[in-house]
Please model this.
Amino acid sequence: MRYKNWLITGGAGFIGVNLIERILRIAPQANIRVLDNLSVGTEEDLRGVCKFRKVKSDEIKGGSVGVELMVGDIKDYGTAFAVSKGIDIVIHLAANTGVAPSVDDPRADMETNIIGTFNMLESAKQNGITKFIFASSGAPLGEVDPPIHEGKVPKPVSPYGASKLAGEGYCCAYFRTFGLKTVSLRFGNVYGPRSKHKSSVVAKFFKSALKGEPLEIYGDGNQTRDFIFIDDLVRAVLLAAASEVGGEVFQIATYKETTVNEIAEKIKDIVERRTGIIARIVYGQCRAGDVRRNYSDISKAEKMLGFKPLYDLEAGIEKTFDYFLNGTGKE
Ligand SMILES: NC(=O)c1ccc[n+]([C@@H]2O[C@H](COP(=O)([O-])OP(=O)(O)OC[C@H]3O[C@@H](n4cnc5c(N)ncnc54)[C@H](O)[C@@H]3O)[C@@H](O)[C@H]2O)c1
Model:
């Protein structure tokens, strides 16, 4: 581990808790401060992976000792500034996540994803932080011929894609103008343990199937995504954190195109095989803002970060099923 003092925004969320668990496994002495407004993730979720103490902004004088949770909002600059004191590296995960909420309320999406990201970058600069990893997505690319890659001109379809693109733009500018080593990682569709609160397709299908409810597909199910298992995603974040790279964007996915129909069938099969529950698949309306095909060419991350996904869909889905079945994944 190159850095000792970490700030993880959105650290109580799905990716955050998995990342914290991994960092502490590799480097038990790491100091990790979490900034989360607990709008989605909970203290319980964080407690599931570590012991922590809660801090208030006026108590922060320098780096954290062990794991600290500050409950606060990235939209507030005072909070962002205080929480960044004594930090070496920021992993900026806090966001309005997903297309649907951004279509319902584009202003809220913009305020969290653009102003919030700006606040974290500016605080990082003011506090002399070395490295900044930004959780972006495939959404900035929008409706382009797949596979998507870093050389394509982004044409976002959803407000979420637009706000993540703005975040990438600020990350690039903060590297080129101020020397903050930013890296934007465009995550594929992440799935895995500790995703019980997610409404993304794998988590949603597992929750429905185990409750005996139908798996609802929006549209005809031939839309495609690039599904990446959480352990691979966390490894990519840590590789980016350890690298000397700044001002770059990387696709972080698997380079595999899977239809939503295929995912639904896989989940239906595993649930039936292992529990006897027979789930139905039903089709609803397409959702505004969703793109038709989306998978990523990950050659740049392979070349520059040494990233290679280790899990195929079968292995990842089995592990995710274990999590949803053993109780902790149930709502
Ligand atoms: N999960 C995926 O498939 C996926 C795909 C692409 C990109 N991403 C990006 O990765 C990041 C993490 O995603 P996740 O799946 O862990 O989401 P999540 O919703 O599980 O976690 C996000 C966390 O951020 C917190 N948060 C939200 N708004 C906040 C605010 N204004 N101030 C402080 N905290 C706030 C929430 O309480 C939550 O704990 C997000 O930026 C998301 O856009 C995720």
